[in-house]
Each structure stands twice: as C-alpha cells, then as structure tokens.
C-alpha cells in the first residue's frame, strides 16, 4: 500500500507538490476551500530571478535560477499530463523612469556584473526601439532575455487537471489544525503518513513554529485589455522602476496585460486599497502611456507569504510535517524546485543541498549561535 500524503494548500506550491507526489506513486489528498486561488491566482506570472535580484540576496537569486532552469521541462511535462501552462520565453526588460530610477538600474547592473551575471545597460532610446510604445521619458534599461513568464491562471488550471489525472483527491475545506499524522477540518480528520504544509501566508496560523517565521505581505494587481484601436501591450515583460518603486507589466498571449504589484504589510486583510490601485495605474501610464486607454478588467489583492530573509521555508518542520511556504515574490518561480525538494524529503533523501538555504529551522539555529 502506498503512503498517504496530505497537502494543505492548493496554490501553485501545494498543487505542484501534489502533482509530483501523485505521479511518483503516493496517494495524495489536497485540502483547500478554493483550489487554485490565493496569491498564485493574483500573481503577475514573472519567472524573473535576475530581473528581481538585489544586493544581499544572493541565495534568493541562486535558488531562483535553479528553479528557472527547470521551468521549461516542468511546463513540458505538465503539457503532457494536462495542458500547456502558457510559458512565455519572450524575455524581460528592466526600465528606469527618471535619473534616480536609472541609478537603481545601474546598481542592479553593477551588482549582477560583480557576481558574474553580465548584463548590458542600454539607453532609453534603445529600450524604446526594442519595445515600441514605452514612454519617451524612460532614461535607461537592461535586457534580460533569460527570465521567463507564465500565465498564472492557466498554470493553476493545468496543475489541477494534472493532479486529478494522477488520482489526487480534493477536500474543499479549510484546515483547522495539523498534526504529525493528520489534518483536521470542520468535517473530519484526514489521516496521513506525511503532511505537506503549503498554505502560503496562512501556514503561520497552522503551525506554532511558523508563527514568527512567515507573515502575509499584501499585493494588488490590475488586469487590463487594449480597447479597439489601442496599441497592443508590450511584447515582452517590462519590469520598471518609477519613483524608486518597482512595477511590472506582464503581457498574456490572449492580449491581456497584468500590471503589478503593490507590496505592503496589512495583516490578513485582502481588500483592495484605492491608493494602491491609483499608484499602479499612474506608474503604468508613466511607463507605457497607451494603458490609459485600455479597458480595466480586474483589480485584485493577494497575500504573499514572506519570511525574514525572503527565502522560502522548505523541509521537515516537525514529526511528519514538511513545510513549503514563505516564497515571498517567487512562488511561481520556485514551484519546480520546491516540488522536487518535497518529493526528495518524502522519499527520505533528506534536504537536497540545492535548497539548504531554505532550511525551515534556520532562524532557530541562528538564535542558538
Ligand atoms: N513576483 C512579483 C510579485 O510578487 O509581485
């Protein structure tokens, strides 16, 4: 009889882990009141470790790059088991609006150069020739051809289909409590040989060891579509810095444009703040002026799960409980490497070296030193 694995959380991390575990022969149950929603549903879909790199976060960059390398194969396998998740290899540009924003671009480029990732800083004029429609005021930019993007909602649908195809059972309820060998919901107790806690920011409410380690970090996004006669969205992902704040515009194959994302602490409040949306619209127009003529199709907020050092927590947390949360801005990016790690831990292969930096007990170990 194969082992029973119960995954708490059906965002991209929980679904990817459930799919991999089920295809490896485990009996898998996923507990989530709304599979395929949460932060993964709200995400822009950037798979961009280099574009989003920052000095001091080398371990985040390395983990992101490892996972990025697995993305094409992950997407291919998902297409075989379900359908194409909408991976885009069009690439990314980074754009700086004013002189101070251009300085930040310079800092990013120097940093990437120092750690061996050579990138070329280009002028605003060159940027506009690569991406027609960008604002004439943009000062400078960087081209990052290797960073990818994915259609987050198509991905979530594909993962759910792949899970079902591999026999994963879904329990549409909230987990109230988790223990070494069970997940408790309002309607019953789901026994398990192993519990995988992948409930994003809510993981902190379900395990005492995560109370201080993981916190919600709100983000709002705006989705829009060009109206008839409007310039279409940019052909590549645009990551911009405007007045020192990060913004991204991620085009979808069906013509939609995702503009994101705000980032601030607001507890578990998932409401959309008017000022956050105003900022996104204002900055998006400063980067790609045509968006002011677009149809606004959706405004949504979600809660990223953030850790103290912006690295995820992946590994054994307590007896029978494996955690996979705290992915911060990188949940979609980190899905392949996290799912592989969970599979390795289930098979008792221990924590792979490549995710040693994501040891979920690292905060406690640091305190003990
Ligand atoms: N990955 C970008 C964000 O979290 O907004």
Secondary structure layout plus pairing:
Layout: E1 4-8, H1 12-23, E2 27-31, H2 38-42, E3 46-47, H3 58-81, E4 87-88, E5 92-96, H4 99-114, E6 121-123, H5 124-130, E7 140-144, E8 148-150, H6 152-165, E9 169-171, E10 177-179, E11 182-184, E12 189-191, E13 194-197, E14 215-225, E15 237-242, E16 245-251, E17 257-260, H7 274-287, E18 295-306, E19 313-318, E20 321-325, H8 331-346, H9 362-368
Parallel strand pairs: 1-2, 1-13, 2-9, 5-15, 13-20
Antiparallel strand pairs: 3-8, 4-8, 5-7, 6-7, 10-11, 11-12, 14-17, 14-18, 15-16, 16-17, 19-20
Bound molecules: glycine.
The helical percent reads 25-40%
**CATH architect. name of the largest domain:** 3-Layer(bba) Sandwich
- Overall body shape: globular
Can you identify the CATH superfamily of the largest domain? FAD/NAD(P)-binding domain
The value of Rg in angstroms is: 20 Å
The assembly state of the depicted protein chains is single chain
Bound molecules: glycine
CATH topology of the largest domain: FAD/NAD(P)-binding domain
> How many beta strands in the DSSP annotation?
20
What are the low-pLDDT stretches, counting only 5+ consecutive residues below 50? none
Q: What is the terminal-to-terminal distance?
A: 43 Å
What string, H for helix and E for strand, traces the elements in order? Answer: EHEHEHEEHEHEEHEEEEEEEEEHEEEHH
Q: Trace the largest sheet across and list its strands.
A: 6-7-5-15-16-17-14-18
- Major sheet summary line: 8 strands, mixed
Tally the helices: what do you get? Answer: 9
Q: What is the CATH class of the largest domain?
A: Alpha Beta
Count of domains: 2
Which class best fits the helix and strand makeup? alpha+beta
Strand proportion: 25-35%
Catalytic activity: glycine + O2 + H2O = glyoxylate + H2O2 + NH4(+)
GO molecular function, one term: glycine oxidase activity
Enzyme class: oxidoreductase
Domain FAD dependent oxidoreductase: 5-341
